[in-house]
Design goal:
- Two copies of one chain form a homodimer.
- By secondary structure, chain A is of the alpha/beta class.
- Chain A has three domains: 5-104, NAD(P)-binding Rossmann-like Domain (Rossmann fold), CATH 3.40.50; 140-302 and 325-334, Dihydrodipicolinate Reductase, domain 2 (2-Layer Sandwich); 349-426, 2-Layer Sandwich (Alpha-Beta Plaits).
- Chain A is 35% helix and 25% strand.
- Chain A has 14 helices and 16 strands.
- In chain A, helix 1 crosses helix 12 (305-320) and helix 4 packs parallel to helix 5.
- Chain A starts with a strand and ends in a 5-residue tail after the last strand.
- At the A-B interface, helix 2, helix 6, strand 12 and helix 12 of A face helix 2, helix 6, strand 12 and helix 12 of B.
- Chains A, B: NADPH binds at residue 107.
- Chains A, B: This is Homoserine dehydrogenase.
């Protein structure tokens, strides 16, 4: 058996500690599969004292992850420091400078700096791998990079923020409003320190940007992802959607179109009977559509100690086996600058608005849509306790988002609406 | 860019032609991803004349795939000849003898001869890869071999024969009996020339044997798979199961237990609301459970030109990139001989029987179960047109299959049954 692969683990939070514990518990199994032992030689974290469920004294300690990355007895640096800059980035840069391969779970940093870091690593013949950064234990990076490598990718979709999916399904199941469930999720510790990372779609948007780069051979471009959070999704929207056979999901979609790369992370309606529609709770799902393979659905835990550590180890064992893959499936320097599509492809939209109960109000709203060239597929007016306001739900035929936004602006100007309409895209999933 | 990887394609049926067409159509994309061109230099098939949708004259022709495998201008042999012996095996052996890597979609041959072929290939430093052999376009071989390499595998499950799943869901949706749907499937060309390969669970059993080998580091042992086909599943079973919140699936399950490797391919009841229960039509699903990652669900097309060709290309591009993996995730020579579990782990069972409408009949049946130490969870007696026969459905608490079989034998001996009871395992899927 060959020499051991020696790891330096930077960051001993839940995931880092999980990686160390699995490597201790499954040393023989992993050595058999990797063809060589995989062992941790050094670790680094903010505080040394804490009980992490394993004997820290078995490993060399570094206060500074940058020094960890420079150690002679480390072949591969596992970066689990977190943060889109600062020590995490310094650690990866140090690893590259010292000729170490890198495995990271840091989606924010890769979405913002992945292009330059991958280029720097690859220029030195190093691997920078990130399975754990996207959808936790779901092997979507590997599936897209390797399993679908013979496909032109038609569409990448994903429910990749477990907290948002938890909130949306909990709202539906318990009949609770967004604010209440948000507070619950916060109390349960499900939300990031800055909750807009979750509910604003930013975290999931980071992940989508990374998958899009692999799928389309384009430079990582987080700015290209149109973000819309779930904050404005109401229990009413969820119920109306359900009545019509849909579920509301924070859905990421990336497609290459004639107008450029379309990438968006937004609350969408998907058919209730589809795998995406059936996904409840914090579970994640990635859907990959290739011109040859058709639609592949991958489902699993998107976060947590075990699933994320499993994904980290997938990359570590890949490198231990001698597999050398480019970060984004082809050399980072060969990725092209993708044109950003100025708007999403046309789709049916769900519209919810509150009409003032005046004669002709509905006609005015309908006229705004008609003037914008948007036709109406279905319309429902619901019972309402407040006699002066009528909740109206519309489903349009396929419409472009700019046309829809223009129509909504005109509707607002008519003065017959109370509040702002909610518009949710219906993502089409033909079978 | 490096030298091209030169392929010899043995077998130009649907899948082989699909591989050639994709390599022609996506040459640039694949070269960018593989880091080098991938091109077909020679092909072989039974008849040369046929129109296969591409220009055959672009490639050297061999009548004999064994001669194809010996060609100097072939680096990698793609074996799509089919059959668990004969020319397919000769082709792979020739490829090994001439130092060529091999990619195959041939589950039957690998299930029966994979151990010796992998050992022979690996002894010469060659790759023998088979993503396309299991569940078509679903990247389950890669997921299990690589993505879950840091996990002790708890259970591997799969619906891996699309024809059987088509038959079972069609029976339910159309309310048609097995024989009628079987005839339909046959007319549609969905069945193998020998249909017991499909409905007898043999084809899916081959696939399970291969996954079990990767999961548990055991030598390929198709004989260890307990096979039970779907021929005895009636529309009544499907309806009763549905009434109780289950679906009937031809489900493969492999687990390593204290009693050895348990591997079975049999019709089982699974919760209707689970991803497995929701799987309808010819779609396949593989469920992998690891101690760290939890449950990963992979869903996609299990057959067909595009999906299978996509899987073949996944292996081809892997090799073009320079990745060298063992056939079963660790050197074949290091795989251990697994003990075969003498019986499956205890589970609840669904039992359907026809009782003669005599006083005391039900008591006698219940006593047989009681004597075998099996307790009854639920019992239903259904309306029946024929007054002399009462259809009875029982769901037992967890029971061992040998105990259940003994109880069924005793029941039959009581003389109160008409025909033989049907016993279907309820596979537990806690969430």
């Amino acid at each position: 058996m060959s020499d051991p692969l020696r790891l330096g683990i930077a960051g001993l939070g839940t995931v880092g500690a999980g990686v160390v514990k699995i490597l201790e518990k499954r040393a023989d199994l992993i050595a058999a599969r990797a063809g060589r032992p995989v062992k941790v030689t050094a670790v680094s974290a903010r505080t040394q004292g804490k009980d992490r469920g394993f004997d820290l004294s078995a490993y060399a300690w570094e206060d500074d992850p940058v020094r960890l990355a420079a150690r002679d007895d480390v072949d591969l640096v596992v970066e689990l420091v977190g943060g889109d800059n600062g020590p995490a980035k310094d650690t990866i840069e140090a690893a590259i400078a010292h000729g170490k391969d890198i495995v990271t779970a840091n989606k924010a940093m890769l979405a913002l700096h992945g292009q330059e870091l991958a280029e720097a690593a690859e220029a030195k013949g190093l691997c920078l791998r990130f399975e754990a950064a996207v959808a936790g234990g779901i092997p979507c990076v590997k599936a897209l990079t390797e399993s679908l490598a013979g496909n032109r990718i038609e569409r990448v979709m994903g429910v990749m923020n477990g907290t948002c999916n938890y909130i949306l399904t909990r709202m539906e199941d318990a009949g609770l409003p967004y604010d209440t469930v948000f507070a619950e999720a916060s109390a349960l510790g499900y939300l990031e320190a800055d909750p807009t990372l979750d509910v604003g779609g930013i975290d999931a948007g980071h992940k989508l940007a990374l998958l899009a780069s692999i799928a389309y051979g384009t430079r990582v471009d987080f700015e290209a992802v149109r973000l819309e959070g779930i904050e404005r999704v109401s229990i009413a929207d969820i119920r109306h959607a359900s009545d019509m056979g849909f579920k509301v999901k924070l859905l990421g979609v990336a497609r290459m179109t004639g107008r450029g790369l379309e990438a968006r992370m937004s609350p969408c309606l998907v058919p209730a009977a589809s795998p995406l529609g059936q996904l409840s709770g914090a579970t994640n799902m990635v859907v990959l559509e290739g011109d040859a393979v058709g639609r592949i659905v991958l489902r699993g835990a998107g976060a947590g100690e075990g699933p994320t550590a499993s994904a980290v180890l997938s990359d570590v064992i890949e490198i231990a086996r001698g597999t050398r893959l480019s970060t984004f499936g082809q050399p980072a320097a060969s990725l092209v600058k993708g044109t950003r599509a100025q708007s999403g492809s046309p789709a049916p939209y769900y519209l919810r608005m509150e009409l003032q109960d005046k004669p002709g109000a509905l006609a005015k709203v309908a006229a705004c849509l008609g003037d914008a060239g948007i036709s109406i597929d279905r319309m429902r007016q619901y019972d309402h306790a407040d006699a002066s306001i009528a909740p109206v739900i519309l489903v349009t035929h396929k419409a472009g988002r700019p046309d829809l936004d223009a129509a909504i602006e005109r509707m607002t100007e008519t003065g017959v609406l109370t509040g702002e309409p909610v518009a949710l895209r219906i993502e089409e999933l033909d079978d």
